[in-house]
Protein: Pyridoxamine 5'-phosphate oxidase family protein
Amino acid sequence: MENKPSETTTERLAVHECWSLLRLVSVGRLAVWVGDGPDIFPINYTTDHGTIVFRTGSGTKLEGALGDYPVAMEADGVNPETGVAWSVVIRGKAELLTETKDVLDTFSLPLFPWQAGKKDHFVRVMPDSISGRRFSVAAPKTWWTPIQGTKPTASE
Structure:
C-alpha cells in the first residue's frame, strides 16, 4: 500500500524506492548539454543492474549524451486514484555500448522506441547519484490565485 504524504509535505525516497519506481514506467526525459546550452529529449528506457539503458539513433541526443558533460534522466508518475505523484532523477555519465557482449545483452531488455527509424545505438547511464520524492498532488483551488479585482465563480 502506498503511503500518502500530507498535502504540504514532500517525502524523500530511499534509493531502493527510486529504482522500484523507475521499473514501473518506461518513458523519461534525458537532459544533456548541447553546444552552448542544455537540451532535453524523451527516451524509452529500461533499468539494468543499477543503470539506465536506452536506444537511440545518430544525432543531437546521442552527441549530447556522449559529450564531455554528465547527463540527467528524470521519470515520474502519478496514481490517479490516490493523487500521489513521484519523481526520480538520476545524474551520471552516459556511455555507448560497443562491446559485442554488452550489445547482445541489451537485446533481452524491454526497449521499445516509440518513433520509427534506425535506433542502433545503445547507451547506458551510469548513475553518480539518484534522488526521488513523493508528494500529494494539490487541488487546483489550493494554488489558484485570483486576479485582483475579480470574484471567483461558483465552480471555483
About this structure: The radius of gyration is 19 Å. The longest helix spans residues 15-22. The domain at 14-136 is CATH 2.30.110.10 (Pnp Oxidase; Chain A). The chain has one domain: 14-136.
